[in-house]
Structure formats: structure tokens, C-alpha cells
Specification:
- This protein is an alpha/beta fold.
- It contains 28 helices and 27 strands.
- The protein is elongated and about 145 Å long.
- Bound molecules: adenosine-5'-triphosphate (ATP) and magnesium ion.
- Magnesium ion binds next to α21.
- The site of adenosine-5'-triphosphate has 14 residues, from α21.
């Protein structure tokens, strides 16, 4: 140990405090990493692993990255789920005795990146926390880069996981004492277990109040939410540990309930491809991508939130729709506003960086440029007629005082760095002005020196130059050395000449360099003061940013409505959903070869509650299901809809069971996923919900699947005597028999035309059932080899022939009210379990039997069945 260098000792002691982070240890212009940190980082970053010195007889692995480009390296480590502790030199190396003091100034974690470029500007970046050993549990989430902070409590664990999925956090905090780390559903996230402090609501409440700057939490509506407060407190605690700067912009906590918004569970959001496609996970091809025509990053983020959290309150929906309508109706108004918004930078994130003390001068210039856009927007809004726009215009603080401050103090094109001057304008600070003029005068004198000395000495090629080691000098070539006057003091000998200084030059040099150094220091200091001064206005800036986001999202929706030919829906609280000429908002953008064929959908709680949709493969069943849900969702978020007319009764929750996919990460098979989702629907759907069932039961054998599908359909139809609005797409044509017993069921199919053993898709939804799937024709279109198609046709013929041989197919619906025996018989026939009975019936040659023989045979069968029953 005694041979350890002081630097290594310092490193190890700091590293000891951050064992689970990669320590970026500042050494001059580099951040260096040692030991395992170096091994991990060099691999992820693709940089060379070397070594420096030794420890316990072993070479110490080391790698490093330049300080000026460290951000991208940090971002990459964080993307790989590492935390990075940034350890800076906290005193000037020139002034320190012995080893320079160092300290960790910040820990960058996946959820706490605030730098531009480190985060996707069109998405929020959340840290979430879950608290509670038992139900209800607290769930809080925070976007450090914008200051959005919300909390709720949730009883049902599955719903909590769904809500977490909707938040999509970059990391999740749990408390060691809650034993949540192993809970199913959390494994998908980067977990941070907070163990050191034991949390109770008292301590968490104190932390929260301190952060929010209030004496009581009552104003935030979260009183009594013990676990919610603990979760929110855990986030504040985590911030304090990782962000050494004070996150002062977080002064608001929004309390919400799941019931405040349309609930979208994780699988529904995935199935409807709200934010990314199922297959590739790309944003392109999602609803968000089609709708997003915002021009600012915060507008885009807000739109994303609106899609994820559609409204339930009729008034609120109508207010948004009215605002979109007024933008839609007046193109010039909309263009004016959108042009005004265009030059506005990410106010939310600028605000956060200013509060955290991480903003540079360019950030302030961007803030100013944004603020300068506000008065015109406000003025243009004054004539708005919609109540929401009027309210935005009245609340919009144009922050002119902030703009004036920046305008007066900050240079127009400052450098990125805060430590090389060029930040503060002349005329802002007297002392600074003096230093600037000294520097300028001194530099001017030096610039003049060459010509005056040439004159004085007669050395025509005399030069004045500067280098870091010797400072300013006068250079005289060898041939002219004899002309150098006696007051020249020799400093350096070169191959071709000599470098000199003079007393006067030395004086000016000291003046210039001293003033320059002081100037840089002073500028840094003044900049810090201005930044702090603006940070004090962070709540005002935040509010303005929020209003701009809202304006942008509304105007963007109007823009999309016009470009995509959407109409304004009628929204109400009845159970009717009536869509005329509805289209799928995403698919209509992508089908180019054939125009998208619009379809009507009518759902109500009387006759058209449960629509069974049959039709060939590829006909468009799934498309109709999804477009209906997407249209309802769009209406409830306040958007126009892809239809010529729409009458939308508010839906409390959309459920989907679509397609089949494995969820190996959760350790579930295809069928298990399908049944889990179905169970979830049956448990939670209400008469206000909208359920999409796309081919349920497909993941198992035909008869098991059909039976489950049938029973599920009956259950939803009869649910709480009112039933649930459901669209059910299926290839089980037997299900169309449900209309015989269930009055609110209606059959529809998607029409196709047969032509020469081919099919032509008409894409039209028409009343009635079909009995064919045309699977083989579709397989042919897909390019299955010809011999396979021909053989499949043969087999299909055989199968269908067999079906016709049967004694007449059982009506599934009758199974409910009949007596046991008949039920058994039907089940046996249906389930094909009793092969014996079937063969028996088939073998009978009815035409050669007498009636008596037939009766006797029938009696034998009955006896056989009776025996089976025992
Ligand atoms: N109304 C429409 N207008 C134009 N094209 C459509 C329409 N509906 C669907 N399509 C096209 O048909 C494709 C298949 O539609 P969809 O997946 O809905 O068929 P499906 O009936 O569910 O088939 P399967 O039974 O195999 O699941 C879509 O991807 C789209 O390209
Ligand atoms: Mg389908």
C-alpha cells in the first residue's frame, strides 16, 4: 500500500463512494478511467485500453476520453445502462499544493441526462419510482429535463405495470424494503434499488416539501397518498444524490388517478401502434408519426402525451376540439401562429438547464431568441374565438424582462465554453469594460510595435510574435542582429535569428495578459449571476413553455386534419359510436397502389353492440378493428378524425387482443400471452369500454380455440346485463351463429369477388356472415409453391366432403339450455371425441334398412351413450 501514488489513493477513495458507477476522473484535458471501469468503458466506447502505474504488483488498466468531447462518450455509456460519475478538479492546479482536490460533481444516470443531443427532443425522459410492499402502491415519475413531475397510487399490480409501460421510464427506483425488485413486470426496466435510507412517508414528505418549497402538500392534492408520497420522495432523494446542482425548476407535483384518462394498457398501446410499429419498433408507421406536425420539441412531447392519455371529460375534449377547429377553419391564422412557433427552441429543457446551472451562454441566446417570438404570437392570439386559445393568450407571459436582461448582457455569438471569455457585452459591467479596454489598448500598442520598431532600428523584416512559453517577443533575423539596439533583452536563440523583449513590451504584456485573465474570470462570474437571476424566473418560463407546447400541439393537429382530410367528430356521453366513411389513419398513408376504401361502423348498446366480422384473409378485418379504436382515441385526445363524419360516445378504456406474439422476456408462450390479455379484458371491461378481439383462440387447437372464443363472446355480451361494445374478427365461421341466441350480436363480413379461382378484395364491410376464408387463394398470392397449393386444395376438398357426410352439424348455440344428455351428445359430436359413434353412424346403409332395424340401431346407440354417461 505504501507504494501507491497519491493520485491512485485519491481515485480509490472517491471510487469507493460510487462503486456502481463508472468514474470519469478528470486529469487535465482528459477524463480517465481505471481498473474495471476502464475495461468496461473501453469495450463499450471502442477506445484503447492501456495502463498506468501499478497496484499490488499489477499494472493498472486505464483508458481516457478528451474532456471537450466527453458528452457523446457519457451518452453512450448511459445508453448501455451504466451510471457515470463525473469527478472534476475542484481547485486550480496552478494554485494547489500537492495533489489537486477532486470531487464528483454529478452522476449521470439513464433517466437524468439533460444535455441536448443526449436525449431525444421529441420524447420525455422519465425516472419513475414504485413504492409499497402491499396495495395500493405509489407510482411517481419525473422528467428532470423538463421538470414534469407526477404521482399516483394504484391498487392492481397489473395496472401499475401497464401505467409504467405508458410512462416508459429510462430507470425505475424501488426501495429495498419493499422487495419489489423480483416482481414480475419490473424486469423489463433498469432498476435502481434504494437501500441506504429507509423511507417512511414522514421523511419522504419532508424531502418533497423542501424540494417544492411548500409547507404542506395539500395544494398538490396528494395528501393521504402515503405510498405516492414515498415514491415521489424517493425520486427527490435520488436526484439529490446524483445531481449536485439544485433542480430548482421542479416546484410542481401533479397528482392524478388512472381514472382521469382513457386507460390504455401496455398491450393495447403496442397493438394499436400508437408510438412505434410492432414489427420494427420504428416511429415511422405509428399514429404519433402520422399526427405529429408540431414545430417545437415541447409541442411534440405534449402531443405524445395526449395520445397516451386521451381525455374522458366531455368539456375538456370539446374545448380542445374547438381550438383545433378554429385553427383548421382559418388557414392564415394557423400559418401565422405556426411560423411564430417555428423559431422557438426547447424552452422546457433550456429552463431546466438554467436551473441546474448547466446552461451555457448559447443556451441563454437561444432562450432570448425564443422569447422574442412571444409578443407576436400573443398579439395574433388576441383575436382567437375558441375559449382555450383565449385562455392561452391571456396566460401567456412574454417574459420581456428576461429577454432584456439577456439582450443587454450576453454577446450575440458566444463560444460554447464559459471559460474563454466572449460572453458578456461591453457596457454591461464597468469593471469588465475597463478590463476589455485595457486588453484592447494593450493589444493595439503591441500590434503597432512592429512598425514603430522597424522604423527605429531600420530592421525591415523585424517581427512581433507570441508564444505560450515566452509570451510576446521581437524577432530579428541573423543578418540583422548587428542592428539590434542595446535595450533589446535576449530571450531565445533560433537557427536563423534571435528573439528579444524590451521593458516596455514586458509591461504591456503583463497588462494585457493580466487583464485578459481577469476578464475571463469576471465574465464567468457575471454569467453565473445572470444565469441565477434567470433561474429565479423558472416557474414563469415553465408556464410559458407549457402554453407554447399546447398551442403548437393544437395548431399541429389542425394542420394534420387539413393535410389528411380529417373531420371534426361529435363527441358525447352516450354509448353510440357511429363512424361514416372511416379510414385507418396510418394505413391510408401507406397504401398507394389501391386507394384506401372507407367503411362505416356503427356500435351502440341496443342492437349493434357486438359485431362479428368475418371474411377472407387479407380482406381488412384487423384494419377495421384498429381504425375504429384509433378513431375513438383521436376524438378523445381532441383531434379530428379520418372519416367523413363521426359520432363518438366517450370510451373509458380500449382493450385489444390482437394477433399472436410471444413474450419470452416475461416467460410466456404465445397462447399464454393471448389468454392473459383475454383474462384482463374480461375482468376489467365495462359498458363504457371498447373491446377489439382479433382472432382469439388462434394459438391452440381449433376446437379448444373455438370453444374459448364462443364462451368469451357470450361473456362479454352478457356482462353486467349491459354488455360491452365489441368488434370481433374471426375465421371461426361457427361464431356467426351467435346471432341466434344473443340479441345484440350482428354479423358483418368484408366483401370479396371470386374470379377464376382468384379473389379480388373489395374492402367493403357489409352485413351478414361469410363461410369462407380463401386461405389457399391468399397463400397463392403470397407465393407458396404451386404443388403445395394444389395439394392443399385436394386436402380441403376432402375435409369439406367429410363435413358434409356428418349427420348435420350441431348448432353450437343450443348447448346452453338443453338437458344434459343432449349436451353430451353435441359436445361429443362437436369435439369429435367419440370416434366410435361417428364411424358407427357412417357405416350404416340407411337405404337397405327397414324402419324397425333403424329403430333398433338407434336404441343400441342410446344404450351405448347411457353407458358412457356412467
Ligand atoms: N379499407 C382498405 N382499403 C385499402 N386497403 C386495405 C383496407 N383494409 C385493409 N387493406 C390492406 O389489406 C391489408 C390486410 O388487411 P388486414 O390485416 O386488416 O386483413 P385481415 O382481414 O385482418 O387478414 P387476416 O385474416 O389474414 O388477419 C392491409 O395491410 C392493407 O394493406
Ligand atoms: Mg387480421
Amino acid at each position: 500500500m505504501s507504494k501507491m501514488t497519491p493520485m491512485l489513493r485519491q481515485f480509490l477513495s472517491i471510487k469507493g463512494e460510487y462503486p456502481d458507477a463508472i468514474l470519469f476522473f478528470r486529469m487535465g484535458d482528459f477524463y480517465e478511467m481505471f481498473f474495471d471501469d476502464a475495461k468496461v468503458a473501453s469495450k463499450i466506447l471502442g477506445i484503447t485500453l492501456t495502463s498506468r502505474g501499478s497496484y499490488n504488483g499489477q499494472k493498472v488498466p486505464m483508458c481516457g476520453v478528451p474532456h471537450h468531447s466527453s458528452q457523446s462518450y457519457i451518452a453512450r455509456l448511459v445508453e448501455n445502462n451504466w451510471k457515470v460519475a463525473i469527478c472534476e478538479q475542484t481547485e486550480d492546479p496552478k494554485k494547489s499544493k500537492g495533489i489537486v482536490k477532486r470531487d464528483v460533481v454529478r452522476v449521470v444516470t439513464p433517466g437524468s441526462v439533460t444535455e441536448d443531443g443526449g436525449v431525444d427532443s421529441r420524447s420525455n425522459l422519465y425516472i419513475a419510482a414504485v413504492a409499497g410492499k402491499t396495495e395500493p402502491r405509489g407510482l411517481a415519475h419525473l422528467d428532470l429535463s423538463t421538470g414534469a413531475f407526477r404521482v399516483t397510487e394504484i391498487t392492481d399490480w397489473d395496472e401499475l405495470i401497464d401505467e409504467l409501460g405508458r410512462i416508459d421510464p429510462a430507470e425505475v427506483l424501488v426501495l429495498e424494503r419493499d422487495d419489489l425488485a423480483e416482481h414480475k413486470g419490473l424486469s423489463a426496466y433498469r432498476l435502481e434499488v434504494l437501500g441506504r435510507e429507509l423511507f417512511d412517508e414522514g421523511r419522504a414528505g419532508l424531502l418533497l416539501k423542501e424540494q417544492l418549497g411548500v409547507r404542506s402538500l395539500a395544494g398538490f392534492g396528494c395528501e393521504g397518498m402515503d405510498q405516492g408520497i414515498i415514491a415521489a420522495g424517493a425520486i427527490v432523494h435520488y436526484l439529490k444524490e446524483t445531481q449536485k446542482g439544485n433542480p430548482d425548476h421542479i416546484k410542481e407535483l401533479v397528482t392524478y388517478q388512472l381514472g382521469d384518462f382513457m386507460f390504455l394498457d401496455e398491450s393495447t398501446s403496442r397493438n394499436l401502434e400508437l408510438f412505434k410499429t410492432m414489427r420494427r419498433g420504428s416511429v415511422k408507421g405509428s399514429l404519433f408519426h402520422v399526427l405529429d406536425r408540431t414545430v417545437t420539441p415541447m409541442g411534440s412531447r405534449l402531443l405524445k402525451r395526449w395520445i397516451g392519455y386521451p381525455l374522458l371529460e366531455l368539456n375538456e375534449i370539446q374545448r380542445r376540439l374547438a381550438a383545433v377547429k378554429s385553427f383548421r377553419g382559418d388557414e392564415i391564422f394557423r400559418e401565422d401562429i405556426r411560423q411564430g412557433l417555428e423559431g422557438i427552441f426547447d424552452l422546457e429543457r433550456l429552463n431546466a438547464r438554467i436551473s441546474l446551472g448547466r446552461a451555457n451562454a448559447r443556451d441563454l441566446v437561444a432562450l432570448n431568441a425564443s422569447i422574442l417570438k412571444l409578443p407576436a404570437i400573443r398579439k395574433r392570439l388576441a383575436s382567437a374565438t375558441s375559449s382555450l386559445l383565449t385562455e392561452i393568450s391571456m396566460k401567456l407571459d412574454t417574459l420581456q424582462d428576461v429577454a432584456q436582461l439577456v439582450e443587454k448582457a450576453i454577446c450575440e455569438e458566444p463560444p460554447v465554453s464559459l471559460k474563454e471569455g466572449g460572453l458578456i457585452k461591453e457596457g454591461y459591467n464597468e469593471e469588465l469594460d475597463r478590463l476589455i479596454s485595457v486588453t484592447r489598448d494593450g493589444k493595439a500598442w503591441i500590434a503597432e510595435l512592429a512598425s514603430s520598431e522597424r522604423k527605429r532600428t531600420g530592421i525591415s523584416n523585424l517581427k512581433v510574435g507570441y508564444n505560450r512559453v515566452f509570451g510576446y517577443y521581437i524577432e530579428v533575423s541573423k543578418a540583422n542582429l548587428h542592428l539590434a539596439p542595446p535595450d533589446y533583452i535576449r530571450k531565445q536563440t533560433l537557427v536563423n535569428g534571435e528573439r528579444f523583449i524590451t521593458e516596455a513590451l514586458k509591461e504591456y504584456e503583463e497588462m494585457v495578459l493580466g487583464a485578459e485573465e481577469k476578464r475571463v474570470e469576471l465574465e464567468y462570474e457575471i454569467f453565473g449571476q445572470i444565469r441565477e437571476r434567470i433561474a429565479r424566473e423558472n416557474q414563469r418560463i415553465k408556464q410559458t413553455a407549457g402554453l407554447i407546447a399546447e398551442l403548437d400541439a393544437l395548431a399541429g393537429l389542425a394542420q394534420t386534419a387539413q393535410l389528411n382530410n380529417y373531420t371534426c367528430p361529435e363527441v358525447h356521453n352516450d354509448e353510440v359510436i357511429d363512424i361514416v366513411d372511416g379510414r385507418h389513419p396510418v394505413i391510408e398513408q401507406t397504401v398507394k397502389e389501391e386507394d384506401f376504401v372507407p367503411n362505416d361502423i356503427h356500435l351502440d348498446d341496443k342492437e349493434h353492440q357486438f359485431l362479428i366480422i368475418t371474411g377472407p384473409n387479407m380482406a381488412g378485418k384487423s384494419t377495421i378493428l384498429r381504425q375504429t379504436a384509433l378513431t375513438v382515441l383521436m376524438a378523445q385526445m381532441g383531434s379530428f378524425i379520418p372519416a367523413s363524419k363521426g359520432n363518438i360516445g366517450i370510451v373509458d378504456r380500449v382493450f385489444t387482443r390482437v394477433g399472436a406474439s410471444d413474450d419470452l422476456a416475461r416467460g410466456q408462450s404465445t397462447f399464454m400471452v393471448e389468454m392473459n390479455e383475454t383474462a384482463n379484458i374480461l375482468r376489467h371491461a365495462t359498458s363504457k369500454s371498447l373491446v377489439l378481439l382479433d382472432e382469439i383462440g388462434r394459438g391452440t387447437s381449433t376446437y379448444d380455440g373455438l370453444s374459448i372464443a364462443w364462451a368469451v363472446a357470450e361473456f362479454l355480451h352478457d356482462r353486467a346485463d349491459k354488455g360491452v361494445r365489441t368488434l370481433f374478427a374471426t375465421h371461426y365461421h361457427e361464431l356467426t351463429d351467435l346471432i341466434a341466441t344473443k340479441q345484440r350480436v350482428k354479423n358483418f363480413n368484408i366483401a370479396v369477388k371470386e374470379w377464376n379461382d382468384q379473389i379480388i378484395f373489395l374492402r367493403k364491410l357489409v352485413p351478414g356472415a361469410t363461410s369462407r376464408s380463401y386461405g389457399i387463394q391468399v397463400a397463392q398470392i403470397a407465393g407458396l409453391p404451386r404443388e403445395v397449393i394444389e395439394r392443399a386444395r385436394e386436402i380441403l376438398d376432402n375435409l369439406e366432403g367429410e363435413e358434409l357426410d356428418e349427420v348435420g352439424r350441431p348448432r353450437l348455440a343450443r348447448s346452453q339450455d338443453n338437458d344434459d344428455e343432449e349436451t353430451r351428445l353435441q359436445l361429443n359430436l362437436f369435439g369429435l371425441q367419440d370416434q366410435r359413434l361417428q364411424k358407427w353412424i357412417r357405416k350404416l346403409d340407411i337405404s337397405s334398412m327397414t324402419p324397425l332395424e333403424a329403430l333398433l340401431e338407434l336404441n343400441k346407440m342410446k344404450t351405448y351413450l347411457d353407458e358412457q354417461k356412467k
